[in-house]
Amino acid sequence: MRAAWYETQGPAQQVLQVGTMPDPIPGPGEVRIRMAASGINPGDIKKRQNAFGYGMAFPRVIPHSDGAGTIDLVGEGVSAARIGERVWCYGAQSYRPFGTAAEYTSVPTAQAVPLPENVSFEQGACLGIPTITAHRCVHVAGPVEGRPVLIQGGAGAVGICAVQFARRAGATVIAAVRTGADDATAQDAGAHHVVHIGLDLVQQVHALAPQGVSHIVDVAFGANIAADVDMLDVRGSIATYATNVDAPAIPFWLLLFKNIRIDFLGSDDFAPADKEEAARATNEALLSGWRGMPIVEQFPLNEIASAHEVVESSRLRGRVVVML
Q: 279 Cβ partners below 8 Å, 6+ apart?
């Protein structure tokens, strides 16, 4: 099969290679997917860069955890009825060496989720980490029905999904976005209100939720924690999946006096049942007419290094997909 891989970490153009390697054979409980599209997430970039300092977990890595395609082979214990099924997959490169940036990948059968017929492979490749992270962030602290919920970064990949899941769960959804150019993206995802990140964010949110919001989904914990405390109601909660600094300062007493709960959420280690519930919720949303995430650029596999550079640059608001 044709595949992209790296054997050392570093800049995309220097370490990413494209070539051929043997086709994978699915093991017991696994399916093999003939990939049509591979999605790029920030975590894929950070692994390739060694941003977390963990080094190479495997001598060769095919990047990307998310993708979409068609099941063409099944392993022992998996029904042959799955062959020919259109699917989106997640976790292909979570604690595993070979992800979705290849013509074929094998994953545990539960991680190959039926792709609704009304959804393209390109959009299917954008699901996975963003939807699973967003669903857990919205629901981890309990029901949000009837409560005001703030989504920080409501026009980003996880933010869009969090807006949609919170709306479907019955929350009053406030999306905080960077500029007015992002308003329509957050509104299309289901936000009731859109506010703009800046010096008066707290005032904007309190105008909509005078007692404070009940729950916040946060994309930049270090930058936002002080404002988050101001915007939360007593016994509110924060679910955060990213930070702008590695060791953020925490206003301990302010959090304590309000009895604030904080959940730090990394999608690789969610419980399998939580991932499966998120996958079901994602398909329900798609079948109900949710359009998913905007795709701004597509690259062929032999230009994967350029695709990584576009994601790193953050010059485009939307998803980047590698087509197989």
A: 90, 113, 131, 132
| CA-to-CA separations, 311 to 219, 263, 296, in angstroms, rounded | 16, 27, 11
Residue with tokens 């989904």: 217
Residue 84 dihedral angles phi and psi, to the nearest 5°: 95, -5
27-72 confidence digits (pLDDT tens): 999 999 999 999 999 999 999 999 989 999 999 999 999 999 999 9
CA 268 – CA 96 distance, rounded (Å): 11
Distances from the Cα of 291 to the Cα of 127, 161, 285, angstroms: 11, 10, 9
Q: Report the distance separating Cα 67 and Cα 88, nearest Å.
A: 6
How far, in Å, CA of 158 to CA of 208, rounded?
23
- The β-bridge partners of 67 are 38, 89
> Residue 20: what pLDDT?
98
Residues sharing a CB contact under 8 Å with residue 291, sequence separation 6 or more, in sequence order? 123, 188
Q: Is 314 left (phi over 0), alpha (psi -120 to 50) or beta?
A: left
Our measurement of the distance from residue 6's CA atom to the centroid of its chain's CA atoms, rounded to an integer in Å, reads 22
pTM beyond 0.90: yes
To the nearest whole percent, how much of the chain has pLDDT over 90? 96
In the predicted structure, residue 316 carries a pLDDT above the cut 80: no
Report helix, strand or coil for 198.
coil
The strand pairing partners of 86, in sequence order, are: 70
Q: What tokens appear for 80 in the block?
A: 């042959």
The H or E element containing residue 135 is helix 129-139
Domains of the chain: 2-126+293-323 (3.90.180.10), 130-268 (3.90.180.10)
* DSSP 8-state assignment for residue 15: H
**Which candidate, 266, 272, 295, 284, places its Cα nearest to that of 39?**
295
pLDDT at 317 over 90: no
Residues 122, 298 contacting (CB under 8 angstroms): yes
- Check whether 3 has a pLDDT greater than 80: yes
